[in-house]
Amino acid sequence: MQQQIYPRRWPALTVLALVQFMIVADNTIANVALPSIQADLRMTTDHGAWVINGYLLTAGGLVLLGGRLTDLLGRRRLFLIGTVLFAAASLACGLAPGGGWLIAARFVQGCGEALASPAALSLIAVLFTDSAERGKALGVWGGLSGLGATVGVLLSGFLTDALDWRWIFYVNLPIAAAALALAPALLPPDATRDRAAGPVDVPGAVLVTGGATAVVYGLLSSAERGWTAPSVVAAMLGGAAALAAFVAVQRRAPGPLVPDGFFSERVRIGGNLAAVFLIGVMAALFLLLTFYLQQVRGYSALRSGLAYLPFCLVFIAAIGLSFLVTARIGSRGTLLVAFGAAAAGMLLLSRLTPESSYPTQLLPALLVLAVGFGFGFPGLQAAALHRVSEADAGLGAGVQTAVQAMANALGVAVFLSIALHRAGDPAAAGDPTAGYAAAFQAAVVGLVLGAAVVAATIPHRLETAATARTKESITK
Prior knowledge:
The chain is built from 16 helices and no strands.
């Protein structure tokens, strides 16, 4: 029996994409403004990093729970609740009187994303039942994930210089209000008969969030206190133990956040793992390059944001071009080109000096990076949701969003800690770019590892769930 096509699916995608754009932009919107935030609220570099990572870790740790709640309580309901929570937390961020308040509000923002983002992505899987249309919708979605990250950096510089850093959070309010006004008329109502039933794995969500937070805390603290400091050792060991306990809980829980069978698809594993490398490097790029521009080169927030404008334009073009390239050389080929270009761009950045010219040295690196990231995001999005059916749409959306958020947080923590460790090395005294060079070189290694994952797990052409079912019916 042919499934009924929802007539307002494309306008509905616009509403979902609007909120997703807002959410993803907040992954990076604090980067350019961070030096101003730290100065205004008197925060150190490692303390200020939590303005970024507090949001990312909560979103990444709880989004699996959000995906499960989406299947249990209804997709539209969770989308609306998450959007309201995100908007309220954005207002709290803008009103923050101190660093602790701001970090706490960013944690709450992460909770909003953990509810809204998987609900929105699972709605796409339900709204677009035709495999070709779903592929286009997911391509738009994947492109927006990267576009929001780049526009967030650009918008941050403009708002911080033209108004105040607090406006990087206030700008979310009209976007959320528009989405909330349009959603009831465009999104399909939740049907009780379509909801799953079963327990909710709250302990698993607490363990993965707490474990990842402890590991990131240890990484960031190690630059100031050293790897052997008791607090650093305790955080790293405690975080690793919590993450190991999470795996154990998933195997025994009656309603695990990630059932064993979900990762039976090698392509899903490869897509999510490869995304960790690409997204982690991109997150670190925006933060570290912003510090370089403002602290080494003396750029203002606005000038720093404008420095990313060519990157944004090429990135948008590369997203569109990636579909044509994929049609010619396949999914695996396009992703290998993406990782190769990104690695080349990071290698160029590793050669920056305090006197590097923007037109001749920095700009070429940014353009090459834009091609790499633009080619990579749509393909990784499709691979991470390879053959996901309507039944596990919420779970697939939750896992994919969790991986993206955790990759952002780990990328910032790992590469920032590398930069801080190198900058604190007596051998690097007098060289303000030594830490950046070390971090960018490490990013090249990470991207090469990501390319190896792609080569080993991603097929020449990705197959949709509908195509797989057709093949199975033919063989039977």
